[in-house]
Design goal:
This protein is an alpha/beta fold. Among the domains are: about 15-80; about 220-290, D-Maltodextrin-Binding Protein, domain 2 (3-Layer(aba) Sandwich), CATH 3.40.190; about 310-395, Alpha-Beta Plaits. It has helices at about 1-80, 90-100, 110-125, 140-150, 165-170, 190-195, 235-240, 240-245, 260-265, 275-285, 330-340, 375-385; strands at about 130-135, 155-160, 175-185, 190, 205-210, 215-220, 230, 250-255, 270-275, 285-290, 300-305, 315-325, 345-350, 360-365, 390-395. The strands form three sheets. Strands 1, 2, 3, 4, 5 and 11 form a six-stranded mixed β-sheet that branches. The longest helix has about 80 residues, at about 1-80. The radius of gyration is 32 Å and the shape is globular. InterPro entries: ACT-like_dom_sf, ACT_dom, Chor_mutase/pphenate_deHydtase, Chorismate_II_sf, CM_dom_sf, CM_II_prokaryot, G/b/e-P-prot_chorismate_mutase, Preph_deHydtase. It is found in: Cytoplasm. Catalyzes the Claisen rearrangement of chorismate to prephenate and the decarboxylation/dehydration of prephenate to phenylpyruvate. It catalyses: chorismate = prephenate; prephenate + H(+) = 3-phenylpyruvate + CO2 + H2O.
Length: about 400
């Protein structure tokens, strides 16, 4: 009995051992098969998705080509015109971009779609001839970024040495339009731009709002090497708090533009510049720190200047230059007709009038287009009162 029990026990133990050995071998095989099927299905799904994307890409390309063909038809319908500037209609572009925003349900953000459509319109317009746009250079400035944001990369940018040169090149016809900074959300108005409007015949045709990020750039990329900083006065002011904290006592050297500061900083390891990321790429500089602007909402507003006015777009702003006779309540006489008609005033600023000591001109931005009521009626009333009011321009409100 003892032997039989022992044999039975050994046999049972052997069978259990075999089962234990077989089970681990079976499970990985089943898992591998399931995994292979899942991978095959995933690959099949991914291939289908890519096929769908390829088909959509084809449709997009065909539609862009069709749009470009219709843009050519617009040119033919207008007849033989002198230059590309004669085909450009900022009010029409503004209407198109507003519709893009209105019908956007995602997943792409409004500003992404606006940028895409802007580039399509820019390329279509450039079929006739690229627009020539003057801006404060050299290459790599925020003014250049504003040009591309408003006109797209198919426009031909003309970097110029000063804001005065931008006005001169547009007035002479060497540039179709110009883009000039007029105010910053933290540092206020760029006075030279306003002063040039006192004597210039040019008109404001548009506005651009550009979010500005400032960076500290240098050749070495090391903070401890910096002994002097180049930058436009506005940029130095925008980063004043950061500079006082991290580089107290370091020499600050004003330049005509941030890009000019970057160009000068690339020549020595002990020099740095305050400029945008694009300037770092153009001039081969490294980022030491940034963004370093003191205000998180740091934004610069630019004006587009040209030689002629444009029709209403449906959501416009008008810039006025008012010369007021010296009498009690003179400014009130200008503002009251606007207020009575419910016209919103966005900005007012005075500047000394050229050629008349202690006389001032007022720059006023109001809502509406000068060719449409109620602004048209208010301007007629102000002019009838004897004050000189010049419409610097009515133009579409900046889109994003």
């Amino acid at each position: 009995m003892a032997k039989k029990t022992s044999t039975t026990t050994k046999t049972t133990s052997s069978k259990l051992a075999q089962k234990r050995v077989r089970k681990p071998a079976e499970k990985p095989a089943k898992k591998s098969a399931k995994k292979a099927v899942a991978v095959a299905e995933t690959r099949l799904d991914l291939a289908q998705v890519r096929t769908q994307i390829d088909g959509i890409d084809l449709q997009i390309q065909q539609l862009i080509a069709e749009r470009a063909n219709w843009a050519q038809q617009v040119g033919k319908a207008k007849g033989k015109l002198a230059a590309a500037v004669d085909y450009y209609r900022p009010e029409r572009e503004a209407q198109v971009l507003r519709r893009v925003v209105d019908r956007n349900d995602g997943p792409l953000a409004d500003d992404v779609l606006v940028r895409l459509f802007r580039e399509v319109m820019s390329a279509c317009l450039a079929q006739q001839e690229p627009l020539k746009i003057g801006y404060l250079g050299p290459e790599g400035t925020f003014s250049q970024q504003a040009v591309y944001k408003h006109f797209g990369h198919s426009a031909h940018g003309l970097p110029l040495g000063s804001i005065e040169e931008v006005f001169q090149e547009v007035a002479s016809g060497s540039a179709d339009f110009g883009v000039v900074p007029v105010e910053n959300s933290g540092q206020g108005t760029i006075q030279v731009t306003l002063d040039l409007f006192l004597t210039s015949p040019l008109r404001i045709c548009g506005e651009v709002e550009l979010r500005v990020h400032q960076y500290l750039l240098s050749r070495s990329g090391r903070l401890e090497d910096v002994e002097r900083i180049f930058g436009h006065p506005q940029a130095l002011a925008q980063a004043g708090g950061w500079l006082r904290t991290h580089l107290p006592g370091v020499e600050r050297i004003p330049t005509s533009s941030n890009a000019e500061g970057a160009r000068r900083a690339r020549n020595a390891d002990d020099s740095a510049a305050i400029a945008g990321e694009s300037a770092a790429v153009v001039y081969g500089l490294r980022k030491i720190a940034g963004p370093i602007e003191d205000r998180s909402d740091n934004t610069t507003r630019f004006l587009v200047i040209g030689r002629q006015p444009f029709p209403p777009s449906g959501n416009d702003r008008t810039s006025l230059l008012v010369f007021i006779r010296d009498r009690p309540g003179a400014l009130y006489g200008v503002l009251e007709p606007l207020a009575r008609r419910g016209i919103s005033m966005n900005r007012i600023e005075s500047r000394p009038e050229h050629g008349h000591k202690w006389q001032y001109a007022f720059f006023i931005d109001v809502a509406g287009h000068c060719e449409e009521s109620p602004l048209k009626d208010a301007l007629a009333e102000i002019n009838a009162a004897g004050d000189e009011v010049r419409v610097l321009g009515s133009y579409p409100v900046a889109i994003l």
